[in-house]
Amino acid sequence: MNVFVILRRLKGLIYKETLQILRDPSSLLIAFFIPVMFLFLYGYGLSLDIKDIKLGIVMEDTAPRAQSLVRSFMNSKYYDVRIDHNKKVFEKQLIAGKIKGILVIPQDFSKKLQNKEDIAPIQLITDGSDPNTANLIQNYTRGVWQNWLIQESYNRPQNQPIGQINMISRVWFNSELKSANFIIPGIIAIVMALVGTLLTSLVLAREWERGTMEALMATPVTIVEIILGKIIPYFILGMISMALTVIAGILLFEVPFRGSVFWLLIMSSVFMFISLFLGLLISTVTKSQFVAFMTSLIVAFLPTFILSGFLFEISSMPEIIQLISVLIPARYFVLGIQTLFLAGNVPEVFIPDTLKMIAFGIIVFLITAKVTVKRLD
Amino acid sequence: MFNRIITLIIKELLTVWRDKKSRMILIVPPILQLIVYSYAATLEIKNVSIGIINEDTGIISRHIEDRFYGSNTFSKIYQLQHKDAKNFIDTQKGLLIIHFAQDFSKKILNNEPGNIQVILDGRKSNSAQIVMGYVSEILNQYNLDYMNQNNLPKQQSSIIITRNWFNPNLEFKWFMVPALMATISLIMGMVITGLSIARERELGTFDQLLVSPIHPFEILIGKTLPGLIIGLAEATILFLIIIFILKIPFTGSIFLLYLSLCIFLLSVLGVGLFISSLAKTQQQAFLGAFIFMPPAILLSGFATPIENMPSWLQPITLIDPLRYFMFILRGLFLKDMPADIVMTNLLPLLTISIVTLTGSVLFFRRRLE
């Protein structure tokens, strides 16, 4: 058989699949509606930047110094302060989740502050059921309180730092510390994993269920031709959907894009192929829309969300889970695309990650081809 | 009538149980997900590596370095040259770099302020900020000790005493596990039963059911009750794993837990049935479920709190059943949430169930005519 025949058959298959995609609202829905909706909701909804923390302040001391401290909290942009003289009210609200922390200024606060020998304590109670917010409240409260001390010059009696060690921090790639800047590239990875896997798994499982896949297999085309004929149109669709998400991410969320389009195309193509092959594999193994849907959800959504390192630090996970995360292709893609957006072109990151993804893709392709081997059972 | 409903329920349960693939999907993934993700989904920062560039030849920077080596927060500390800095951060060998300038010790010994520069990786700004917190704690402690040793005027005139209620050590797992239980219940409830109608419709068995003398209302009960039973069984397994294997404290009342679970599952089944009733094919039903689930998970405050969302997005969370259940579960696990607060959050759930369940009956009936 010569190359010409193969190409002609492939062209025919691709044409058929393209028509099928264009006539099937579900594929277009998956490729265009889901990515934009996801980016929009997750981009706005997933934020680690806390603002307007609801803090209850119990003023047992009403002397001017205590009032000035409370004013510092009220002026801080991080807090939405409410004041009471009774701690009980706030305790109930803390359980109900209406406030996130309680700050108690004890009765003898100003008196102790005046006295050079004494240390004046204030008490902070946080809602530990949300540990990240509790941590941030601790940090912000310490910040407000330290500024206040400096202002009141209780910290530095002569208004002079003495033997003081200062810390000056510089944040590379994301100087305003906006969490959207690293979350949006991560979401693009999630969207691509979902779209790729869903496109092939759901659509093809339906073909298996209806028997049209068997009909295709009864023709003289080879298995590799069938796989390529299925993958190529979906690949183009998936890449259009990726481009849409990237552009929307840059325009809507003002995330900088400092790398080159060349690397974006290389890495996202490899990743898209992996997702499509995974979906193909799922549909071939399950052969039922119901099980294929469940499996894609289990394989594509939560692992990408949780184990890719886009939100949760992989190095903080127990070792055995770090080992599992090696098997999640999104792990390599997330670091690559975050770097591409924020840091620019760093081939030291891109090349090894792309190679790992290619290896992963080849393995999935081989398994898919082996499982799909024209079997009519 | 009761006999008919009971027969229907038994039939439903058998259908799910007899199919080997659905049986597997019912049991293995939820348990596996709960265990793996409860360890994986953490915003805690452990095993961090940092880099130090020390151009200072004096004694002070070495003392401070010793503090870093002595603390067990950092798993690895790299000594770097100035030129390595870019590569170190770029390839994420470490989250941050601490830089001592040449004249650092001299300045401190001369009683002048000395600066330490810290460089953070903004691609992980949340983690980097937390690590910076650790670094500044170490530096503050060193500052204080240095003052005391050299009899410099005492700085501290006030202190903050912090207590973390409900979760004293701020263990992230305690926050995540109840959320995972809620999320997995949502996914299972939705897919296993809510969407089963869509499958039956495509296979034609649903039409058979409709032409039988069973009333649509009975079909509805016959479809929701098995879902409720399966959902409750699933949740019980997850709950036992959480208590005995993951060892998360449960401070609330078991009765309130099961009451909330029932109402939550009803609302989830309602949404599932509603989607099925709108969809013409199985695929449409799955896509509908797919468009519903991830946003529902996100908007519930699963990973990041609802309060952090923009104010126009927050009202949308009010129609998310998972939001209420997540709040109740976290409250019951950690806060011993009293009945009145649980009830105020069950009310919207009940409303969602009633609206979606009646809605789906209406739509099914219209299809029938």
Salient structural properties:
heterodimer; A: 377 residues; alpha/beta; abc type-2 transporter like fold; 2 domains; 4-stranded mixed beta sheet; 14 helices; 5 strands; 66% helix; 9% strand; elongated; B: 369 residues
What is the element layout, followed by pairings?
The complex is a heterodimer of chains A (377) and B (369).
Chain A: H1 3-23, H2 25-45, E1 53-59, H3 64-75, E2 79-84, H4 87-95, E3 101-105, H5 109-114, E4 120-127, H6 131-151, E5 165-172, H7 180-210, H8 212-217, H9 223-253, H10 261-286, H11 289-307, H12 319-325, H13 330-342, H14 347-372
Parallel strand pairs in A: 1-2, 1-3
Antiparallel strand pairs in A: 3-4
Chain B: H1 2-18, H2 20-40, E1 48-54, H3 59-70, E2 74-80, H4 85-90, E3 96-100, H5 104-109, E4 114-121, H6 125-149, E5 158-165, H7 172-194, H8 196-203, H9 205-211, H10 216-244, H11 254-278, H12 282-299, H13 321-335, H14 339-368
Parallel strand pairs in B: 1-2, 1-3
Antiparallel strand pairs in B: 3-4
Helix pairs in contact in B: 1-10, 2-7, 2-10, 7-10, 7-11, 7-12, 7-13, 10-11, 11-12, 11-13, 11-14, 13-14
Q: Could you describe the 3D structure shown?
A:
The complex is a heterodimer of chains A (377) and B (369). By secondary structure, chain A is α/β, with parallel strands linked by helices. Chain A has two domains: 7-46 and 178-372, no CATH class; 53-151, abc type-2 transporter like fold. Chain A has helices at 3-23, 25-45, 64-75, 87-95, 109-114, 131-151, 180-210, 212-217, 223-253, 261-286, 289-307, 319-325, 330-342, 347-372; strands at residues 53-59, 79-84, 101-105, 120-127, 165-172. With 369 residues, chain B is α/β, with parallel strands linked by helices. Chain B has two domains: 18-41 and 171-368, no CATH class; 48-149, abc type-2 transporter like fold. Chain B has 14 helices and five strands. Strand 4 of chain A pairs parallel with strand 5 (158-165) of chain B.
